[in-house]
Amino acid sequence: MRKVLHLLFVMTALATLQCRSGNGVEPAPVGYHAPSVPARHPERVSIQQGVWGDVWFLEGNFMPTQPSGTTTAVRREMRIYELTSLADVELVQPPYTDFFSRVHTRLVARTWSDADGFFQLRLSPGTYSLFAVENGSLYANSFGDHGISPVEVKGGAVTPVLFRIDYRARY
Q1: Against a cut of 0.70, is the pTM above it?
Q2: Cα separation of 68 and 162, whole Å?
């Protein structure tokens, strides 16, 4: 049964790949009315290399015909792991495709977003997986070609991300 659930999850993730990019900053889906680029706090970035961004909680209807959803900047613990694939995680039961109970790659760092959703973290060059702690589980809803919620950090650069927690949103 566990193999069947894992296969179902992998198939869902692969289908999701067609709609989402793998570079950590997702394009806005058609009809999506919240900003799609984390440009709210660039003046607050004080690191020379790593990752910075915003964490937003989306809830409600974001369908193009009659959008009525809300987008709220939120304070969350953010965890950065070595690049993580679907084979490296355990799903929360029953299988929720964006929630994970365990990640079996190395935890590299953790930080908190502030009340405005802003966070930043110094990191060495490399590609990482970014998760938010949500209701006691790890949450990530972006799947790239090589991993879950991948974020690439290049030498001497700071990578912007928009981390959307959108399990209560409808598109």
Answers
A1: yes
A2: 21
